[in-house]
Design a protein that fits this description.
The complex is a heterodimer. By secondary structure, chain A is an alpha/beta fold. Chain A contains 6 helices and 5 strands; from the N terminus they run αβααβαβαββα. Helices cover 54% and strands 14% of the residues of chain B. Chain B has helices at 8-69, 73-84, 89-95, 102-139, 155-166, 189-210, 242-245, 263-273; strands at residues 151-153, 174-179, 185-187, 216-224, 228-235, 277-281, 289-296. In chain B, a hairpin with a 7-residue loop joins β6 (277-281) and β7 (289-296). The chains are: A alpha/beta, B alpha+beta.
């Protein structure tokens, strides 16, 4: 980590064979434009309403998209080579015709076992017990069930990225 | 049963019985294969509908956030403020430091509500398309009920169902359908559907992998000779090299590092089992590909052929 911008921009890898799901992830991280400050101050003057300013989040996420497991591995390899690792990867369980989510996750962890992986699935039969873990760190993939909500995605991304960062700084 | 090896009649009976058992087993295998394909189709539909539901859920939550962000409350408060000064409204608006700011306030609120309305309309459009998509997929269920014998179907309908299942409306792929008038065919509809799902799914992955902006998929339905109908699925995706094209229907052949190489192999088998053919043409790597499924007007019931190795 050399550049200051790396501290605030966290790269998230999204792996899914459906372009609509990629758009859903993008939409989850889209920020609404904040209320114009002029409007806020006028509301305060006219009606005496003083709202707390929304805290701007200090973390920016950059989404990087892969449509197959193999592409994801390539992106992680490039990221490692350029010193731009991915703290978090969201991976779909079912991605014909290539690797499924678990196969993709195993390949990713072979290259970089520090990535926090979220397996996204519409199937109820994936249980945490049957999923592999990154041996050396005792890490398990997290599960995100479809249909997901923006709050779930943001929360997972924020918490996992935070944990990834604190682990690096240790 | 002990058989007298010198008794030709007993041997013959034994042979007939074995043959019958074998036929029985083949029929069971074929039925099991059909069932497995039905469940593959069902799981592909479920996955697709699940993804569309995801879009709807995300839109619903974003709309809720947007609705909550609309600065409507100020309008009511403004009405109250104006009511307070109703006896000297003109003076209030002209001279009071607060009153003088009211036009600017109204303009800012109007802008904020206008932006909010546009964002809501965008999400609503996404949602409407998603709901339409689910309607289409649900309507396709009539093509999925189990059949016991070849059934008269409109092939173009099956093609549309497969397109609707694999591609959703907002996907960045241009789909061109050119359907000539063709007679109805008598066929196992699931066989055709399964092959179409495979071809369209391959085409979709091929154009996605090609990373070109003008992703295009063409489906052409026409008569082929006296007694066949041809469905052509063309894409402008990654294409197939000359050496690969010879092996493309071979079991286990795949260009994906970890692919199974089963899709086209099994599609070619299914095509043969209904008395049809599956062929491919590609000008080369990076130049797209065309797959052609020919279906006989009066197809045979899928026999055990699709269970046997070539």
């Amino acid at each position: 980590m050399t550049a200051q911008s790396h501290e605030t921009t966290l790269r998230i890898l999204v792996v899914d064979d459906d372009s609509n799901i990629h758009k859903d992830y993008e939409r989850c991280f889209e920020r609404m434009a904040p209320v114009a400050p002029e409007l806020r101050s006028l509301e305060a003057e006219l009606f005496g309403i003083v709202e707390e300013e929304e805290e701007p989040e200090d973390v920016e996420f950059e989404l990087v998209h892969a449509y197959q497991g193999q592409d994801a591995v390539e992106l992680v390899r490039q990221g490692l080579a350029q010193g731009k690792q991915f703290p978090v990867a969201f991976i779909d369980m079912r991605m014909p015709p290539g690797w499924n989510g678990v196969q993709t996750l195993q390949h990713l962890w072979q290259m970089d076992s520090s990535i926090h992986v979220v397996i996204c699935t519409a199937y109820s039969d994936v249980s945490l017990d049957t999923l592999p873990s990154a041996e050396d760190r005792g890490m398990k993939p997290h599960i995100l069930r479809k249909p997901f909500t923006p709050a779930q995605v943001r929360q997972l991304a924020t918490e996992l990225a935070e944990s990834w960062r604190s682990h690096r700084e240790r | 049963m002990a058989v007298n090896e010198t008794d030709p009649a007993a041997l013959q009976a034994q042979l007939v019985a074995t043959q019958r058992d074998l036929d029985d087993l083949r029929a069971k295998l074929a039925a099991a294969r059909r069932k497995e394909q039905m469940s593959e189709i069902a799981s592909s539909i479920l996955h697709n509908v699940g993804n569309v539901l995801n879009r709807i859920t995300v839109s619903a939550v974003l709309m809720e956030e947007r609705l909550n962000s609309l600065r409507i409350d100020g309008i009511g408060k403004l009405a109250g403020l104006l009511a307070e000064h109703s006896s000297e409204l003109a003076t209030f608006l002209r001279e009071d430091p607060r009153g003088k700011q009211i036009p600017q306030f109204l303009q800012l609120v109007a802008d904020q509500l206008h932006d909010g309305k546009q964002a809501l309309a965008r999400e609503l459009a996404v949602m409407k398309r998603a709901v339409e998509h689910i309607e289409v997929v649900v309507a396709s269920r009539k093509h999925l009920r189990s059949v016991e014998k070849p059934t008269e179907v409109e092939l173009t309908e099956l093609v549309n169902v497969a397109l609707d299942i694999i591609l959703s409306h907002s996907e960045a792929i241009d789909v061109h359908r050119s359907y000539e008038a063709v007679p109805r065919v008598t066929v196992d509809p699931h066989a055709v559907l399964q092959i179409m799902l495979n071809l369209i799914s391959n085409a979709r992955h091929s154009v996605t992998a090609a990373e070109r902006p003008d992703k295009t998929l063409r489906v052409h339905v026409c008569r082929s000779g006296e007694d066949m109908v041809c469905i052509e699925v063309s894409d402008n995706g990654v294409g197939i090299s000359e050496e690969d094209i010879e092996r493309i229907f071979t079991r286990g052949f795949t260009t994906k590092p970890d692919g199974q190489g089963m899709g086209l192999h099994s599609s070619a088998h299914i095509a043969a089992s209904i008395g049809g053919t599956l062929t491919v043409h590609s000008p080369g790597r990076g130049m797209g590909a065309t797959f052609a499924l020919r279906v006989p007007l009066h197809g045979q019931w899928r026999s055990s052929d699709d269970c046997a190795e070539p």
